[in-house]
Amino acid sequence: MDEAIIHTCQRCGACCRWEGDVCLTDADISAIAAFLSISEEDFINTYCRLQRNRKGLSLIDDENGACIMLTPQGCRIQPVKPQQCTDFPHKWNFPGWEKRCPGAGKTSYSPS
Question: Phi first, then psi: what are they for 106, rounded to 5°?
Answer without folding.
Answer: -80, 145
